[in-house]
Request: fold
Amino acid sequence: MKIIDIRARTVPISRFADASIPSGGLTTTMVAVVTDVVRSGQRIVGFGFSSIGRFGQQGLIEERFAPRLRQAAFADLSDETGTNIDPFRAWRVMMTGEKPGGHGERCVAVGTLDMALWDLAAKIADVPLYRHIACHGPAAPAPSVKVYAGGGYYYPESDVGRLADEARRARDLGYTRFKLKIGGAPLAQDLKRIEAVSTIMRDPAHVAVDAMNAYGRDAALQAAASLTPCGLWWFEDICDPLDFATLAEVVGSYDGAVAAGEALFSVAEAKLLAAHGGLRKQRDILLFDPVHCYGLPGYLQIVREFDARGWDRDRFWPHGGHLFTLHLVQGLGLGGAEVNPFCFQPFGGLADGTLIAEGRTAAPDLPGIGFEGRTSTRQAFAELVGERS
Amino acid sequence: MKIIDIRARTVPISRFADASIPSGGLTTTMVAVVTDVVRSGQRIVGFGFSSIGRFGQQGLIEERFAPRLRQAAFADLSDETGTNIDPFRAWRVMMTGEKPGGHGERCVAVGTLDMALWDLAAKIADVPLYRHIACHGPAAPAPSVKVYAGGGYYYPESDVGRLADEARRARDLGYTRFKLKIGGAPLAQDLKRIEAVSTIMRDPAHVAVDAMNAYGRDAALQAAASLTPCGLWWFEDICDPLDFATLAEVVGSYDGAVAAGEALFSVAEAKLLAAHGGLRKQRDILLFDPVHCYGLPGYLQIVREFDARGWDRDRFWPHGGHLFTLHLVQGLGLGGAEVNPFCFQPFGGLADGTLIAEGRTAAPDLPGIGFEGRTSTRQAFAELVGERS
Reply:
């Protein structure tokens, strides 16, 4: 087998189900890795995208990382049998010549291609991705995993009412936990948003808040003091992601769980978080986005770093909210998965018809990641490879 | 005035004067920011490039940063008089919507455009760049600054002999200090390289070594022990740039000066280096590359962070080895400048005919950065804008 084409296209991606609401100009890059393998008359293609919440990486993919894959001998990309891609070996090819430090952007470019390579490898192995990676997880993978609904951005009009509607729709889908954004409005207004969502989810301990790294030291401590009585599930991305001194100070003053790591992208930064962030291994939450952290090989470096420090894997709740992260949670035995049922379409959310029962679900029983089981995602990727869906 | 065009092109750039020697596939991106201002019949164009030692950033420039400059109203880019670009205001336009963390690649893309904007602003002001930025430096800028010759990469054949030739050529040009690479060969071989260069420069205290972040903890401590008796000028980029624990351990065991920061790209990382790297403000050296650190506005954040911590500016010897960094050293009152007289052409080195006297030189007395005073650089930029030089 060989890779015969790698296609990439950057598309806008919205924080809102209604994509016409201004959303910060975020983008993601879709990639398709096309092989010469044909199964039941269908060519095997691996699909990936740059996760959500930052920017697409078509430029770096086309300048540096896709050329290295294209120029590699298949023997440098394949497993020992020569019948499938080994994404770890492909990852080393992509990282050839990369220099130490500078963990931004390229980590997303590599992670985007890496997602497609795992989709490809699991499709060729003819198993769902979570089973293909089970050797990196617990002896007996769980048949289902905990999930929560992410979203809860600020609406430019009728904010609290529309936020409550969004949480209600999530609850009606079977989600028992919800995460909303704070830090973009005065605290009093944020407390109203939190109260509205807590009422709908019926328990503030099922509601997490995400400050999107907005607070400086004083505002962070003030917010922590105001949030303590709320009894929330967790308090996320409090300050600048590299301001470990402020993070440690907030952790020291906040009884509830703190969540960190969404805007850290490498095992080098993860070690600094572990050493200086003050996190408590029995309580706090690790959010690293596997796609943004150089893909699964980079993410596993981070998971193993915390394994070695005595953290349980149930402290990992990876950022992302899409099918790839769901497979990783199930396959690696992590705490649970974010799902974006409404925002970041057509990539957020689960396969069509997936049931959420008591706040749990499972990855689709399809080969690979199973994007084919979600109509809107399948159509987007079909367009990229020039086929009608 | 307005910006009427922004052009970018990525080109290979070699660690060797002989560009046919394999050199890690490094690239840099040249940019030209073209205005509608005409002076003495010549259109004013600002030139920049992505410094050296990492990769070009045409993709990110074209995807994110040039479009923001193009779409901005001139009033958002200009100074109060409306007659010149204010690169600090242009920088804020480029950074609009950027998210916290992830200080890699984009910092180089922004720094590349920023260099061109400073060239432009100083050309419109009709002064050399170091004078245009003098308000950020000492009351009385020095008429000349200390410099050293950088280079000294491993030659694939006849390494020590060719390295000695390179150092001799630098000495013949007037350089009294030289920096070579180590960490890519066994220590015994590196000690031979160091001895050869020390003999030519006539004093090991005028010779610095750069390990290019190659050592793990044990190798770093071993190297430090072996280098201590050499009495070198400084020991640079010892371990992974974010491994502050190893750096601090080496600093604690090494009497000579240590140099760090070339592969850190933001004030957030600079604060971590200052807090956890164990550096000694009377002895150690700060290498941050202004172009790689989000350009001059980002670099000034770092300089001021160390100002506030009581460091003297003479501890800054910025990485780069080209005219832009020379202007910054002279204008901001920094310790000294790297010059790459032979490698990283056509961008390394000084203006044609520049004299080095007793290891000191000065930025060219031309408007802007003065790339026009270096034939090979002028020709490269002229090709980019489609003119004959």
Observations:
- Chain A has two domains: 3-126+377-384, 134-372.
- The radius of gyration of chain A is 20 Å.
- The mean pLDDT of chain A is 96.
- Chain A has twelve helices and eleven strands.
